[in-house]
Amino acid sequence: MGEQLRFAVLGPVRGWRGPDEIDLGPPKQRAVLAILLLGEGAQVSVQTLVDAVWGTGSPGSALSSLRTYVYRLRQLLGPPAIHSVGDGYQMSTCPDSLDLTAFRHLVGRADQARRDNDSKAAARYLNDALAHWQGTALTGIRGEYAQAQRDRLDRLRLSALEASFAVRLDLGEHTDIARELAALVAEHPMDERFREMLMLALYRSGRQAEALMTYSEARSLLADELGIDPGPALRHMHERILRADVALTTPPASTHPPQQAPLQTTPAQLPVDLPAFVGRAAQLAQVDLMLDGDDGMPAHVGVAVITGMAGVGKSTFAVHWAHRVASRFPDGQLYINLRGFDPSGLPVSPDRALRTVLESFGSEPISLPQDADALAACYRTQLAGRQVLLLLDNARDAQQVRPLLPANPGCMVIVTSRNRLSGLIATDGAHPVHLDVLTLAEARDFLARRLSANRAAAEPAALDEIIEHCARLPLALSIAAARALARSAFPLATLAHELANGQSRLNTLSGCDTAADVRAVFSWSYHALTPAAARLFRLIALYPGPDTSLAAAASLAGLTVPHTYQLLTELTEAHLVDEPGPGRYVLHDLLRAYADELTCATDAPDERHAARIRVLDHYLHSAHRAGRAYSPDRQAIALPAPSQGVQAEEFPEGPERAGPAAAWLDTEQAVLMAAIRTAAAHGCDTHTWQLAWAIGHHLDRKAHWHDLEATQRMAMEAAKRLEDLCAQAHVHQNLARAAACLGRVEEARNHMERAVELFTAAGEMTACAESHRLLSWVAEQQGDLEAALSHAEQSLARHRVTGDPGPRTAAALNAVGWCHILLGQHPQALAHCQEALAITEVHHRPYLAADILDSIGLAQHHLGRHSDAVASYEQALALFRKVGVPYAEADTLRRLGDTHRSSGQVEQARAAWTQALAVLERLDHADKEAVRAQLKALTTNPPCR
After folding, report:
1. What whole-number distance in Å separates Cα of residue 308 and Cα of residue 441?
2. In three state form, how does the secondary structure of 603-649 look?
3. Which positions of the chain have pLDDT values less than 70?
4. Distance CA 782, CA 119 (A)
5. Sign (positive/negative) of CA torsion 92, 96, 100, 102?
6. Could you tell me the CA-to-CA distances from 122 to 178, 258, 741 in Å, in that order?
7. Which residues contact 258 (CB under 8 A, 6 or more apart)?
């Protein structure tokens, strides 16, 4: 029995003791062993084993049968092989005892070798790793769980194969691997990764025609099966082969690209740890086991799912554990509240969560792709090679979490949810950690730390009664402690008596229900409030967003800001409202549900409606003011007067007002989106379309075009119900912008043409003029330059008819000039742009002036007036830098470099393009590759002097 045990799951499930194979028993017994082995040292709960072996419709005898199988396996393998841990079992594994663990270990060593530029070692490790595969994983194990695990393991195998072929291509083994890649492509015809490498291997082997045929086959297959074209990488490889790119013929000099310099931004977003955290030792140890690598890091991507009833302390546990191990994740610790059960609105979408993470690492919002798959690829690239801890709080389901799982070892994800997330456990290898209520000893310790040991020891019987009536639920105990602290002169027996009297209102939480479990505890906290604070608490249930500002809460209640601040202070001291950040107030979802019950039972329908209208008015008028400060030349819409008691936000006057307005829109974006949904749901059609208009320009500048489109579609439905043609025209404008930026230019043109029709019919000449200017931009995107010029000229003519001598006319003049440049009519362009520039000097519009100066510089460049062009570009750059528009700065730097190069000033061109590249790299913008190519061409092919 002393000989080492070895197991295999990467093929048939098998086991050996020393050199002798072990008969592992019948199929279900083998399945139990396989599931424990797949845990790779982590605890596997009894429920997970039952679901995995028998499926969700397991028979009543499943639990008894499971224990029999575990008993037999222990008899067969020896008692130390399988340990009882908590409510489940555990098998320890290492590279010497399990082929899957050995496979992961070798792949990890290969990754390190590639980072060290040692391709030969990487190839050797990957070859050894793949040798562990002896057919289809888990052969002979049936069921949905086994199939899901097979699929997951096969993805690991294909990733290792991809890495292996890439390394062998780097080593010049293209001739040897072409046949292997061809077989793999035949097996996985839709996987473009292997087809791309096959094309490269064939091309390097002198088989160019076969390489091109491989691409043609892919194009036909994708068109026939899915109706799509090959992806960008495959198309790029095809183009490089067609032009006989010399860089393809030999492997790169460096067998692995150098590591990128670490980003300066290192997120540290964990909420504050709870000083009075008690207990949970077994669960903390269970999560600690996931840090099973040699260096105390996850050997693979660790995913822990913390589940349990509402109020049991899932978030507190996750934050506490995350703080304990934060130092092991030096590249960042991120926190995202996914709001999976937030009654105030929709859960956070995976797209929005991905953007939040990328922006936390310093990515500019405008540089992020709109396509969900491309966004996920950016996320995986950002985390590649990094050690990051990600805490996903309050997840709704596996679909919300799955896109946020990193792909590389060294990262750790901890998820909290009221749901079991069995899909994440079954298909993604997540480890469940269930939290129950505190033990009696832990609950006593909890209250003693909150109340002081002396006070707790003075009334032990009353303390135990409080614990009993709170059902040892941490949330209820926390509220009870706050109540006792607020009434320090009262004995604890008084509090115990109050809880006992509320037993008819205390309900045991069942499943994932939300509100009824701590109603009695909430009720006495609520009844201790002043009447004004109690009213505010009730009305917060009507608030549309995830958190509220002080001014918004004042508008909701119809009170002054100082009075509202006093009431919120009272609520936070009573632990009925949290203040997670300065000036931001949050209601826990259980408390919100309780407040909703109270307002429905206490406040008249007319009062609730009036409060809802006040908060919608608050956000409408605040967003309108912010939009005017943010984009002063955008034609404003007329708003109805706000309701009495609304405290709309104010923004400073003067040229610098755009900054605070933009910051407010950033902070309130989620609330504004929720407000639009609330307005639409309650039939407030005017609020719906006007709120969507107010936030539209902000969403556009932030490149949140999917959000822009979603809000405008709700706005269009509202405008149609109102039969308001001008409102519909404004919505068409915003829908056009969203459609064009999402690549649907023909649809955008249709929207803009409809906007022109509606504004013309309504006699809205200024709005019609602006629509023609936007239509000019859309036509330019389509390549219809004549139409673009025509619409720009119509915009200018209409502005002149209205007598507007200001920035809108300047913008129209610049649009006309720009179109003349694109058509090669440079003298006409220069005349229009110089007229536009004169207007901006009177009205102080630095951004517009910079845009016009950039146009003037391009016209001067084409007229051969290079020194004048340089001067115009440098003025434009100074203004762009002053107002902080980095992409426009990079665009002008590129044109400045073009002018220097045309005039033979090679070093000046290099300097301008180098600056442009630095900006684009900071933005992580796709144009950076084009600038790199310009710099490379400048080095290899300098212009003739």
Report:
1. 20
2. CCHHHHHHHHHHHHHHHHHHHHHHHHHHCCCCCCCCCCCCCCCCCCC
3. 1-2, 42, 56-57, 86-87, 115, 226, 250-265, 292-300, 309-310, 341-346, 364-367, 370-371, 501-525, 528, 575, 588-590, 653-658, 884, 941-945
4. 46
5. positive
6. 19, 15, 42
7. none
